[in-house]
């Protein structure tokens, strides 16, 4: 049995092969390239869009790979460096060896034999750097419960077993029960995540392991469905969607921490400690609860529908106090402000 979704390792291997192949076949039809690599034309376009923002350090236009395909024919440029054999310095070799060792420990990596072979070659070629890498260990701080959950989901990924989760949705402060088909375990920004097909949401979801209250590996096949696709996480776990609600918040100094603790699209910090932020919310309900909790320290500026929702909710809560807002210890205006 084989998995029905493409791993990041699979895609990286195709991209590294694709660049020198395209460089020697300028103007090739995009359909022919798709046949060569055994993927759809849309996937070739997605790969080219990714290559378009890749290149050598410097982040200037001249450092990036040039790719064009608008006329149905692919042209690639400024990519000769990636097509040449790479010569590593001592520090680079050490960093690569340590990274490969960490990668080999990640469950769900199907090319472990290839990683082991690459490690053996690097360690032999790098000499002292290879010996020094044995003194380096990568570890992520986790408590006993999270370590147990990590072990369970790793086992589920390896054996393709479905997992039952009791999961805390922090934005709603709600515990949920769901069955998931594990796809991979990831370490991102110092936290462990399980990426899985969620049968409750009928979509791919990312679960923070420190928010998994209970996990049970089921004796049920957990192979993800064909539509399950790993998410691109190079820019972080949070993924914006066109369906998200764009929310603009005005934050008083005592609430400015929101800009540092939530994924925001933009933040304007002022000298007095206040801030104005723009963020996206798939479920605006958590924004409503956040603003209520902050009282008068947060004001929703947009969208108007969310302003009205917060105003009505605050008014309904204040109706429970016979002497009005003063008895509730709240300002006379709702959390949404003016």
From TrEMBL:
Is Ligase found in the keyword set?
no
Q: List the residue ranges of the region (Disordered).
A: 319-338
Provide the alphabetized UniProt keywords.
Proteasome
> Where does the signal sequence lie?
none
This protein's GO CC annotations: proteasome complex
Q: Which Pfam families match?
A: HTH_PafC, WCX, WYL
* Keyword Transmembrane annotated: no
User: Could you tell me what this protein is called?
Assistant: Proteasome accessory factor C
């Amino acid at each position: 049995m084989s998995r029905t979704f493409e791993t990041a390792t699979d895609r990286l291997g195709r991209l590294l092969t694709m660049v020198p192949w395209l460089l020697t076949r300028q103007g090739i039809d995009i359909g022919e390239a798709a046949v060569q690599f055994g993927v759809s034309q849309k996937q070739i376009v997605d790969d080219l869009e990714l290559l378009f923002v890749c290149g050598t350090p410097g982040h200037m236009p001249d450092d990036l790979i040039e790719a064009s395909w608008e006329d149905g024919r692919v042209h690639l440029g400024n990519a000769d460096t990636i097509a040449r054999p790479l010569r590593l310095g001592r520090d680079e070799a050490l960093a690569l060896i340590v990274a490969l060792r960490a990668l080999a420990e990640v469950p769900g990596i199907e090319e472990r034999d290839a990683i082991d072979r690459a490690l053996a070659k690097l360690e032999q070629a790098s000499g002292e750097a290879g010996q020094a890498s044995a003194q380096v260990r990568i570890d992520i701080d986790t408590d006993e419960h999270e370590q147990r959950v990590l072990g369970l989901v790793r086992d589920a990924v390896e054996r393709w077993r479905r997992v039952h989760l009791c999961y805390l949705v922090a934005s709603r402060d709600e515990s949920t029960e769901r069955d998931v088909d594990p796809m991979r375990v990831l370490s991102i920004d110092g936290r462990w995540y399980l990426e899985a097909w969620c049968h409750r949401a009928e979509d791919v979801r990312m679960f923070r392991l420190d928010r998994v209250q209970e996990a049970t590996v089921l004796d049920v096949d957990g192979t993800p469905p064909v539509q399950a696709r790993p998410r691109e996480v190079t820019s972080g776990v949070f993924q914006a969607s066109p369906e998200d609600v764009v929310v603009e918040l005005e934050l008083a100094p005592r609430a400015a921490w929101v800009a540092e603790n939530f994924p925001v699209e933009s933040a304007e910090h002022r000298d007095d400690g206040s801030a104005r932020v723009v963020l996206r919310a798939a479920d605006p309900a958590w924004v409503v609860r956040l603003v209520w909790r902050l009282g008068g320290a947060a004001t929703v500026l947009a969208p108007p529908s969310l302003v009205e929702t917060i105003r009505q909710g605050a008014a309904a809560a204040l109706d429970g106090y016979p002497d009005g807002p003063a008895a509730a210890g709240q300002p006379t205006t709702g959390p949404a402000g003016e």
